[in-house]
From TrEMBL:
Keywords: Antibiotic resistance, Cell membrane, Membrane, Transmembrane, Transmembrane helix, Transport. It comes from Aminomonas paucivorans DSM 12260. Its main location: membrane. GO terms for molecular function: antiporter activity; xenobiotic transmembrane transporter activity. The keyword Flavoprotein does not apply. This is Multidrug export protein MepA. It is a multi-pass membrane protein. Belongs to the multi antimicrobial extrusion (MATE) (TC 2.A.66.1) family. MepA subfamily. It holds the Pfam family MatE. The keyword Metal-binding does not apply. Signal peptide: none annotated. It is found in: Cell membrane. GO terms for cellular component: plasma membrane. The chain crosses the membrane at residues 16-34, 40-73, 94-117, 137-158, 170-189, 195-216, 259-279, 285-306, 318-343, 363-383, 390-412.
Length: 454
């Protein structure tokens, strides 16, 4: 194992997880802040129709995010396990293939997205008064997809080798740019919803510039070498197989949000869509720290499992699951107690607030389960066990939430949309628990058969 990553198998588990998770938590919060900051400024600078337009765009953009995570998660799992096995050459090969994949998929997604935008908006049952806002906002954000693919991929690689602070710094710089440009473009230049979109694209470009500097100045253990940019079948298959679970989870999340937007448009109004746009951004922001915790676990679990340190691997997983559950429980209490103040950060329109408060309370009844679900799925991703990782990642959205969103609204109207979310959370938590306990017993058995470092 190379010196720059040996600490993953040597330092005390609790402090190590905290040190690696904290930058991930901050970085993911910053990543989610793009949409939240845009929503906040759109709410005050454009109004409810602008909020509805950005809500319609959100599921489309989630599918793009899913594609970036597909390669990023798969490559980061392969990188950390290869480093744990003492094989830095394979780790650099995975990094090179990730960069090559990003350079191919970014432009391809841009071309495909622009060509299918109008049919997608029709499929989402976009109201005529909302259509211009949704189209303008989404079209501009598609221009930034090549930047998004490259930036997200390199950030995953940094975290995989334990450079969480560098990854966090890149996101902080980008968020600062977005926060400065949003009010400038909306309130000074008066570009409307297009200003919010352009601010996000420029901020994404800042991430790529920063990460290029990081890699070119040798501040990482791994290098991007020209010879590794050639796609290799063995590496690519493993990257795509392991990353498929996260890509599918986010893609299914985009499909789920799209179905919710469509149902709200059919059984509600543009005001209901606008309220859901706020709620979905808030929930995404509050979910991001859980992703950060999972990212902090990934290099520790992957490295120690690859090195045969099973006791450390099991301990890291259990600590992360406990921390994630505690966080999601605290957030759950806040969401139930104060939906009104949260919504008023984005809008003062009485109709939106009256509809949004009961919607938020009902939709978040199961949020206390989400932390355990997230760490459970991430455990199998880090271990390179693609099938259970894929199943658990898809359980909530594909197996449960999407069918509920199709079946319940025709009988219960808007309430059917709202109650689908906590029902899906409950049943997916039960499924995750069964797989998680089985894996912990497996690791304990390996630990007994081959004693490892405490």
């Amino acid at each position: 194992m190379i010196q720059d990553t040996a600490f993953l198998g040597q330092e005390r588990i609790g402090p190590l997880l905290f040190r690696l998770s904290l930058p991930g938590v901050v970085g993911m919060l910053v990543h989610a802040s793009y949409n939240v900051v845009d929503t906040l400024f759109i709410g005050w600078g454009v109004g409810a129709l602008g909020l509805a337009g950005s809500a319609v765009a959100f599921p489309i953009l989630m599918v793009v995010t899913a594609l970036t995570a597909w390669g990023g998660v798969g490559a980061s799992s392969l990188i950390s396990r290869s480093l744990g096995e003492g094989n830095p050459g394979r780790a650099e090969g995975a990094l090179g293939n990730l960069v090559a994949l990003s350079l191919l998929l970014g432009p391809a997604t841009l071309i495909l997205g622009l060509g299918t935008l109008d049919p997608l908006l029709r499929l989402l049952k976009t109201a005529p008064e909302v259509q211009p806002y949704a189209e303008e906002y989404t079209r501009i954000l598609f221009y930034g997809t090549p930047l998004l693919f490259t930036g997200v991929g390199l950030n995953y690689s940094l975290r995989a080798e334990g450079k969480a602070r560098l990854a966090m710094t890149s996101m902080l710089v980008s968020a600062a740019v977005n926060l400065i440009l949003d009010p400038l473009f909306l309130f000074v230049f008066r570009w409307g919803i297009a200003g919010a979109a352009w601010a996000t694209v420029i901020a994404q470009g800042t991430v790529v510039v920063w990460l290029g500097y990081v890699y070119l100045t040798g501040r990482t253990a791994l290098r991007i070498r020209p010879g590794h940019l050639r796609l290799r079948g063995d590496l690519l298959r493993e990257i795509l197989a392991v990353g498929l679970s996260e890509g599918a989870r986010l893609g299914a999340n985009g499909l789920m949000i799209g179905l919710a937007v469509r149902a709200l448009g059919v059984y509600g109004s543009s005001t209901a869509v606008a309220a859901y746009g706020i709620i979905s951004r808030v929930l995404t922001l509050l979910f991001m720290p859980l992703i950060g915790l999972a990212q902090g676990l990934q290099p520790v679990l992957g490295f120690n499992y690859g090195a045969g340190l099973y006791r450390r691997a099991r301990k890291a997983t259990l600590i992360s699951a406990q921390g994630a559950t505690l966080f999601s429980g605290l957030v759950w209490l806040i969401l139930l107690a104060a939906p009104g103040p949260i919504l008023r950060l984005f809008s003062s329109e009485p109709g939106l607030l009256a509809l949004g408060e009961p919607m938020m309370r009902t939709m978040t009844l199961g949020f206390f389960c989400v932390g355990f679900q997230t760490v459970g799925a991430a455990t199998f991703q880090a271990l390179g066990k693609a099938r259970p990782a894929l199943l658990l990642s898809l359980a909530r959205q594909v197996l449960l939430l999407i069918p509920l969103l199709v079946l319940l609204p025709p009988f219960f109207g808007l309430l059917g949309v709202w109650i689908s979310f906590p029902l899906a959370d409950l049943f997916s938590t039960l499924l995750t628990g069964a797989f998680f306990l089985s894996e912990m017993r497996f690791l304990k058995g390996r630990e007994t058969a081959l004693p490892s470092t405490p």
